Amino acid sequence: VNLILLGPPGAGKGTQARMLEERFGLVQLSTGDLLRGAVAAGTEAGKAAKAVMEAGELVSDEIVLAVLKDRLDAPDVAAGTILDGFPRTAAQAEALDALLAERGQTIDAAISLEVEDEAMIARVSGRYTCAACGEGYHDQFKQPKVAGVCDKCGGTEMKRRPDDNAETVRTRLEAYHAQTAPLIDYYRARGALTEVPAMGDIDQIAARLAAIVGTHT
Ligand code: AP5
Ligand code: ZN
């Protein structure tokens, strides 16, 4: 199965994708994580993407598709994927259809997380992650059981993203509304869209998503 998680920055795509990954044995493919990996590794794609990401704008379709294609051909991905943060433009959605068709596959469902913009600024500004395993936390909404110690791996180094400040989040929200939100209609038109209210408690939203994903696995 191939599932898409659509939603603005802070909607909980990464948080929920990681929970679905554990529960259903699917592989989370986050173009944001892939691009941050390329930036950290100093590859050509990473060099081109760095400043664009720090400004909160969208990286070019060409670069995003190049990093995604590499990952899509890795053997572990055969189990099925949760696409987190991709596609983000009409051109990416069309390229994805073509990439999957080449592999005899298709999109089974596009799940849109329905949230309020203003709340997203607080969510993103308070976010941090474990440097060792990538588990996500939040200053208010999701603290580790022991302060500063990762629940998942015991790591004690936490990091914050350079684009997680209130000003850049506004730019990212604008990019979402202008370029990505139109994809909701794209998937609705082909009967693949499911809208999920995503303002409440993390576990409640996870239960809603699991019920939907369960019908496709
Ligand atoms: P990307 O990494 O994809 O970031 P994003 O879409 O802005 O999404 P986020 O990671 O900010 O949010 P999320 O929805 O995953 O929320 P999370 O679960 O962490 O992209 C970054 C940049 O890379 C882009 O700006 C662009 O430059 C580039 N890029 C990436 N993909 C691209 C593409 N396809 N094309 C072009 N450019 C691309 O949750 C947020 C916080 O809230 C966490 O702290 C979490 O603990 C907390 N939280 C989660 N759920 C809840 C809840 N229900 N209640 C309270 N708190 C919650
Ligand atoms: Zn960890």
UniProtKB/TrEMBL annotation:
<comment type="subunit">
    <text>Monomer.</text>
</comment>
<dbReference type="GO" id="GO:0044209">
    <property type="term" value="P:AMP salvage"/>
</dbReference>
<feature type="binding site">
    <location>
        <position position="150"/>
    </location>
    <ligand>
        <name>Zn(2+)</name>
    </ligand>
</feature>
<dbReference type="InterPro" id="IPR007862">
    <property type="entry name" value="Adenylate_kinase_lid-dom"/>
</dbReference>
<dbReference type="GO" id="GO:0005737">
    <property type="term" value="C:cytoplasm"/>
</dbReference>
<dbReference type="Pfam" id="PF00406">
    <property type="entry name" value="ADK"/>
</dbReference>
<feature type="binding site">
    <location>
        <position position="31"/>
    </location>
    <ligand>
        <name>AMP</name>
    </ligand>
</feature>
<keyword id="KW-0808">Transferase</keyword>
<keyword id="KW-0862">Zinc</keyword>
<protein>
    <recommendedName>
        <fullName>Adenylate kinase</fullName>
        <ecNumber>2.7.4.3</ecNumber>
    </recommendedName>
</protein>
<comment type="pathway">
    <text>Purine metabolism; AMP biosynthesis via salvage pathway; AMP from ADP: step 1/1.</text>
</comment>
<dbReference type="InterPro" id="IPR027417">
    <property type="entry name" value="P-loop_NTPase"/>
</dbReference>
<keyword id="KW-0418">Kinase</keyword>
<keyword id="KW-0963">Cytoplasm</keyword>
<feature type="binding site">
    <location>
        <position position="161"/>
    </location>
    <ligand>
        <name>AMP</name>
    </ligand>
</feature>
<dbReference type="InterPro" id="IPR006259">
    <property type="entry name" value="Adenyl_kin_sub"/>
</dbReference>
<feature type="binding site">
    <location>
        <position position="200"/>
    </location>
    <ligand>
        <name>ATP</name>
    </ligand>
</feature>
<feature type="binding site">
    <location>
        <position position="92"/>
    </location>
    <ligand>
        <name>AMP</name>
    </ligand>
</feature>
<dbReference type="InterPro" id="IPR000850">
    <property type="entry name" value="Adenylat/UMP-CMP_kin"/>
</dbReference>
<dbReference type="GO" id="GO:0008270">
    <property type="term" value="F:zinc ion binding"/>
</dbReference>
<feature type="binding site">
    <location>
        <begin position="57"/>
        <end position="59"/>
    </location>
    <ligand>
        <name>AMP</name>
    </ligand>
</feature>
<feature type="binding site">
    <location>
        <begin position="10"/>
        <end position="15"/>
    </location>
    <ligand>
        <name>ATP</name>
    </ligand>
</feature>
<comment type="similarity">
    <text>Belongs to the adenylate kinase family.</text>
</comment>
<feature type="region of interest" description="NMP">
    <location>
        <begin position="30"/>
        <end position="59"/>
    </location>
</feature>
<feature type="binding site">
    <location>
        <position position="153"/>
    </location>
    <ligand>
        <name>Zn(2+)</name>
    </ligand>
</feature>
<feature type="binding site">
    <location>
        <position position="172"/>
    </location>
    <ligand>
        <name>AMP</name>
    </ligand>
</feature>
<feature type="binding site">
    <location>
        <position position="133"/>
    </location>
    <ligand>
        <name>Zn(2+)</name>
    </ligand>
</feature>
<feature type="binding site">
    <location>
        <position position="36"/>
    </location>
    <ligand>
        <name>AMP</name>
    </ligand>
</feature>
<keyword id="KW-0067">ATP-binding</keyword>
<feature type="binding site">
    <location>
        <position position="127"/>
    </location>
    <ligand>
        <name>ATP</name>
    </ligand>
</feature>
<dbReference type="GO" id="GO:0004017">
    <property type="term" value="F:AMP kinase activity"/>
</dbReference>
<feature type="binding site">
    <location>
        <position position="130"/>
    </location>
    <ligand>
        <name>Zn(2+)</name>
    </ligand>
</feature>
<keyword id="KW-0479">Metal-binding</keyword>
<keyword id="KW-0545">Nucleotide biosynthesis</keyword>
<keyword id="KW-0547">Nucleotide-binding</keyword>
<feature type="binding site">
    <location>
        <begin position="85"/>
        <end position="88"/>
    </location>
    <ligand>
        <name>AMP</name>
    </ligand>
</feature>
<dbReference type="Pfam" id="PF05191">
    <property type="entry name" value="ADK_lid"/>
</dbReference>
<comment type="function">
    <text>Catalyzes the reversible transfer of the terminal phosphate group between ATP and AMP. Plays an important role in cellular energy homeostasis and in adenine nucleotide metabolism.</text>
</comment>
<feature type="domain" description="Adenylate kinase active site lid">
    <location>
        <begin position="127"/>
        <end position="163"/>
    </location>
</feature>
<dbReference type="GO" id="GO:0005524">
    <property type="term" value="F:ATP binding"/>
</dbReference>
